[in-house]
Amino acid sequence: MWAKDWIIATRSDITGIKKDFSSVPRLEALGRGDFTNPTATTPVAAAPAECTSEPLRVSDESDTDILELHLFRSTGAYTTTRALSWPPLDQTYVENDGILEGTWETVPSALIESVEWSDDRSSATFVVHGDAKFADGKPITAHDFVYTFKRAIDSAGSYIPLLLPFVDIDSSDLIEVVDDRTFTVSANRPTALLERFLTFQVFAPIDKELAEANSTEEDPWAFDYFVDHNNSSGPYTLTNWDRATGELVLDVNPGFPGEVNNCGVIIKNIPDAEQRVQLLQNGELDVIMGVPPRLLSTLEDDPNVTVYRAPSSSINYMYMNRAFAPLDNKLVRQAISWAVPYDAILSNVLYGYAQPAGTLVTSPMETYQGDAAGVYSFDLDKAREAFEASGVEPFSIELGVQQSQTQDQQAAVLIQDNLRQIGIDLEINILPDGDFQSRRNNREMPMSFHDWYSWGDDPFYQMTFLGGCGSFVNFADGCNERLDEVVSEGKFETDPARREELSLEAQQIMVDEASRAYLWAKDWIIATRSDITGIKKDFSSVPRLEALGRMG
Q: Along the chain (552 residues), what's the average pLDDT of each consecutive run of 10 residues?
């Protein structure tokens, strides 16, 4: 009469349903949220049959904590989500010392068939590629892209509204569906950053149908669901996530219409940098990130390993909070800035794997004009002269340092030795990471370190966050109204010559204010086995796994 189906019913967050020859339920396979196929009920299509080589084995400098695109997450998580999420634009690339480096020219990404810009480039019309699919085989549509923008702009939990003032998008109504495959993105005026921003993974399409199915009254945009679920629009799909070890398995997404140069990636969580280096050297890993500079010379000497490096606009500086006397005296801040041994820090702490910072507009960044701005160098005579002119008596002051940041600790000792010679006793206070973050955020330390990287490499974007009046990460708490005016004009200026002029004035103001001693701009570094190819660096500097391949 009938052949009864094999049936198991679960809560929607349960994964790992397994059926073997006996049809007896397999309890050991069941789990919650640790095996993250795009949905609990939709199988992922198999990878292309021609993929027969072993997956690449990669280890980043941190684990993956969450997958949610619109929340701040760990460094490792950005690498993972970049592999799963494809934005509407990409860059053109040129090879430089073995690295495919992104140019300023943008092009449609693999998900976009065409893009047409308005004459002033303030708006664009995108046509979605007809073969673009999510990992479950569902076509990607204009509705999914527009849903992502509206979610990013309108949801209370998203950090993306912090970015949108830079491109003068103040309403989700500026992003519209034209038809199932066509959508438009418009800004209120032309800006220098709109095209760059549209290369960021945060604007990759989210499966609207899946999101709405998992939304709740308390969580209307399904943030909780996407913390550990993903229906990939990118070159890979996440087929296993072992929460206990941090290992992730990324298989090739057959619905991705772009090129993938490997047959998948296994991301291994190895917190210890020395262990990562050893595993790379003995061939158990193919690619590693987050290598401390002190270990790089060992890798450089290994014929089976290649170290790729490029300048980056990341910055590490020591800030001086003028709410603490005598740091309210500009001449004291200038004296400290002259007494910092910048070159010794680059050589002895960064081992040469960094560039001078100069100002918040770092030396590798467009519009940097350090000589014209008069950036500080190590000069104890000028330091003593400025300190004497300040009229301040010799004093002691605290420098807070994060326990996990050994480079900051080493730099602190070098700075301490030289400040002592001009009459300033720097009291180094090494704090547990949690205490450090709390005290820094609450402005409880007169001096400390801060490191930062801005996606997009734009000087005005970086200055807005780090130097703007009232900015939550302006830990020096200085407010120069003219600097704010210059930066506000610059972030919307599209004429390159005028941007240069504005940037120079801003750099001159920062040198005069001396609210920070600008220490270094750390190089972008990836180390691989010598047979690995396809090292790619884009505006975000997040590793691009799909480009990696093996020779032969």
A: 58 52 49 42 42 90 92 91 97 95 95 97 97 97 97 88 86 96 96 93 97 96 95 97 94 96 96 95 97 95 97 95 96 98 97 96 93 97 98 98 93 98 98 91 95 87 91 89 95 93 97 97 97 94 95 80
428 by Cβ neighbours in 10 Å (0-12 / 13-18 / 19+) ranks as middle
Classify residue 454: in a domain, yes or no: yes
Residue 143's H or E segment, with its range, is helix 142-154
Domain containing 513 — which CATH number?
3.10.105.10
User: Is residue 132 assigned to a domain?
Assistant: no
Give the Å distances, CA to CA, from 419 to 332, 381, 386, 423, 519.
11, 12, 13, 7, 15
**Residue 383 near residue 422 (C-beta atoms within 8 A):** yes
The first and second tokens of residue 474, run together, are 């302006």
Question: Residue 541 and residue 419: Cα distance in Å, rounded?
Answer: 35
Tokens of 118: 């308005």
In a domain, 191, yes or no: no
Beta bridge partners of 308: 526
Cis peptide before 326 (omega within 30 of 0): yes
Sequence-ordered list of residues with C-beta below 8 angstroms from that of 250, at least 6 positions apart, any chain: 55, 80, 83, 84, 236, 237, 238, 239, 264, 265, 266, 267, 545
CA distance 382 to 323: 24
Strands 535-537 and 99-108: parallel
Amino acid of residue 300: E
Side chain identity at residue 535, one-letter code:
I
**Which range marks the domain in which residue 497 is found?**
315-522
Q: Is 349 a domain residue?
A: yes
**Phi/psi of residue 491, each to 5°?**
-70, -15
Q: Assign 538 to helix, strand or coil.
A: coil
Domain count, the chain: 1
Q: How far is CA 522 from CA 73, 88, 525, in A?
A: 21, 29, 9
Full DSSP string of 152-169: HHH-TT-SGGGTGGGGT-
